[in-house]
C-alpha cells in the first residue's frame, strides 16, 4: 500500500510537531483535537486547539516547519465534527494524553470512521502495545503498531517501531519505509517493553548522573564538563539535558517506568525521589521553558551571566545558585585519548565519569534480548535518540570488553551474559570489508543497510582513497563516480583542498570514460564553514597581500573549472554550508541537499564579501529566476516594454542579491534555500541523511548521460550607476534607523559595487570573468581595512560577529 494522506490525533507539542514534519515532507495531513470545554473562551471556535497549535508552531524557534507555507498542508478540525476526514487517510497517528482509558475511547472513534486497510499507530512513550490493543477488534490489531517519535519531531532522527505478532507485515514495512524515506527517520525495531530502548537507557543514565553528582559532591559544572564531549555525548551533559527536556518531565518518566518495570530491574535501585526536584518544579524552575533549571541566567546581572545550582538533596532555594564556572579537568582533556583515558584519570571528573558509565553500560548489557534483538539496535537508538557519538556497546568496545568485565568483577558487580559471551573479543569487528556485530547466539552478523543507503564510512571499510592529501580525500563510490571528501577542521577550504579538487577534475577529464561524474560530500556534522579564518588572519597580520590575492584567485579558478567541467559535479551538503561552503554549491551543476542544510553567504559578518564567485553566481541565479517568470526576452512581454519594471530589470536581481548577501541571510532548511535562491527549484532534497550520498550519486549518473557543460555567459547586464545609488541610499536609511552599523555601510558599498557592475552602464555587456575580477578587486580593498581585521579577530575569539 501507499501512504498519500495522514491524520494526527492530538494537537499537543508532539502531535502538532509530527503533523508539521509530515507537511515538511509534502504530504497533506489532518490534525484533530478535542473541542475546547470552554468554547466561549475561544469565541466559539470548535477547532481552536488544533488551529492554535499550528499558529504557535509558526512562531516557534527552532521552527517545526521547514517553510512557513508548509502549514497550508495541515487541515485542522476536532474529534466531534471532523472524524469523517479520517476516511481519506492512509495512516492515523494517535498522540493523545498518556491515559489508557482515554486512548481506548479514542480508538473506538477512529476504528469506526477510518477507511478499510488504513494503518493506526500510537506515539505513546510509556504504555505497552499489548495494553493499548486490549479489547480492540482483530482487524484493529492487524493494523496497529507503536511509532514513537522523539521531540522535536523535525530535528530528532529516532523513531522507535514496536509491533505485535498480529500486526500486518505489509503495514509494518509501509510505515517503516515512509518514516525512513519521507520523514527522514532512523527507524529502530524495539520490543514491547517499558520505555522501549532509548528512554529506558537514557532515563537510567540521567538518574545515575544526578545520583553520583550528589553522592560524590561533584558540582553540576564538573559533571557536565566530563559527561559530555569527552565521552562523545552532546555538550548539554546530564544536567543541561534535563533542563532542555524539562525538569518536570523527569518525575513523570520515573513514575511511568516504575509502574511497569520488572521488580528486579536495576532502575528501581537507582531511582531516588529527591525533595529538591519537586521544590524546583513548584518554584517554576522547570528548565529552559521555565525560570531556569539546574542552570539559569542571573536575573540580577546586566549581562545575564550563567549560574549553576549547588546541589542539595533535601532542599532547593534560589540562594543555591552561584556563578557557573568552567572547570579545568584533566579528565575532560583526556577525552582526546579515548574513553578509557577519561575514566582512568584520578580526578573528580574521572571518578564521576567512571561510576556513571559503569552503571549505564552494565544496565545496557543486561537488557540485550529484553528490549531489542541486537546490540546494534540498542546502539543505534542511543545515537539517534540522544545524539551520542557511540552507543553503549561501541563504548564498551572502546574501553575493552575484557577490561570492563574485569573491572565489574573487582567492584563486586555481576557480569551480564552478553559480556561473558563476547569474552576477549569485541562487540563489533570488520570482516571482509563489512562491519559485523556480536549476536546473542554467539556469532557475528553483518550490519545490514536498507536499500538506497550508501555511507562513505562503509565504503572506507573495504577500499582506499583514489588519492588524498592533508586536507581532503577522494573515493571511488562505484559506477564511475568519484566522491570528494573534505577533511579539514570544520571542513574549511585551504590551498591543499583546492589542489585536490583540481586533481580530481583533471583525473576525471583524462580518465577516458573510467570516471564520469563527481560528488562533493562528507559525513561530518557540517558540510563546510567556508574559508579557514585562522590562516587568513595570519596572512593579513603580516601583510601577505599577494598571497591573499593568490588564494582568492585560486578559489575562483577552481570553482569556475568545476562549473564548466565536461562532466557533472553534484554537491551533497548537510548541516552548515557557509561562505565558501555555499559558493561551491552555487558552482555545482546540481545540488542534492539533506533537508537540514543551513547555507548562506555570510562573509559580511567578518567584514568581507563573497570572493569565490558567490556574488557572481547569486546575481546570475536571480536573473535566471526572473527570466523564467517573464520569458527569455526580459525587455519585452508582447508589445509592452517592461525593462523599467522593478521585478524584471537588472535592479530586481541586484536588490535581492544585495539583501541576501548584505544581511548574511542563512537558509534554515534546504527548502528555504530554494526559496532564497541558493538552490535551484530543480535541485534535490533528501529527508534522511543516510540516503544523501546514494541520492547524490544517482543524480550525478542521471546528469552524466549525454552531459553537455554549460557555456560561459558573455552578455550579463547589471544595474549600473543608478542601481548603485539606490543600494547606497537603502544602506543609509538602515544606518539612520540603527539597523546597520558604520562598518556595515563600508562593506555594503563594496558589495554594491560588484552587484551593479563596478561603474559599467546598464546597457554594457559583461562576462563572468568581468564579475570575478570585480569580486577580487573589492575583496582585496576590504581585506586591507582595519574594520575587517577587527571583525575577523572578534569572530575567531568570540565566535560571533562584531557589530563595529
Topology (SSEs and partners):
Blueprint: E1 6-9, H1 13-24, E2 29-33, H2 48-57, E3 74-78, E4 91-94, H3 100-113, E5 119-122, H4 129-132, H5 138-142, E6 144-149, E7 158-162, H6 169-182, E8 186-189, H7 198-216, H8 220-226, H9 239-245, H10 249-260, H11 266-270, H12 275-282, E9 295-297, E10 306-309, E11 321-323, H13 330-333, H14 339-343, H15 348-366, H16 375-386, H17 392-399, H18 401-410, H19 417-422, E12 428-431, E13 434-438, E14 444-446, H20 456-459, E15 467-468, E16 472-476, E17 481-486, H21 495-509, E18 517-520, H22 533-541, H23 545-563, E19 569-571, E20 575-578, H24 580-587, E21 590-594, E22 597-600, H25 614-630, E23 636-637, E24 640-641, H26 650-662, H27 670-676, E25 684-686, H28 692-704, H29 720-736, H30 742-755, H31 768-783, H32 786-798
Parallel strand pairs: 1-2, 1-4, 2-3, 4-5, 5-6, 7-8, 17-18, 18-19, 19-21, 20-22, 21-25
Antiparallel strand pairs: 6-7, 9-10, 10-11, 12-13, 13-14, 15-16, 16-17, 23-24
Structural domain tally: 4
CATH topology of the largest domain, by name, is N-(1-d-carboxylethyl)-l-norvaline Dehydrogenase, domain 2
What is the CATH C level class of the largest domain, in words?
A: Mainly Alpha
The gyration radius over C-alpha positions equals 29 Å
The total count of helices amounts to 32
Low-pLDDT segments = 634-647
Summarize the structure.
With 804 residues, this protein is α/β, with parallel strands linked by helices.
Kindly describe this structure.
By secondary structure, this protein is of the alpha/beta class. It folds into 4 domains: 184 residues, NAD(P)-binding Rossmann-like Domain (Rossmann fold, 3-Layer(aba) Sandwich), CATH 3.40.50.720; 225 residues, N-(1-d-carboxylethyl)-l-norvaline Dehydrogenase, domain 2; 195 residues, 2-enoyl-CoA Hydratase, Chain A, domain 1 (Alpha-Beta Complex), CATH 3.90.226.10; 152 residues, no CATH class. It is 43% helix and 12% strand. The chain is built from 32 helices and 25 strands. It has an 8-stranded mixed β-sheet with strand order 3-2-1-4-5-6-7-8, with helices on both faces. The protein has a 7-stranded mixed β-sheet with strand order 15-16-17-18-19-21-25, with helices on both faces. It has a 3-stranded antiparallel β-sheet with strand order 9-10-11. Helix 3 links the parallel strand 4 and strand 5. The protein is globular and about 80 Å long.
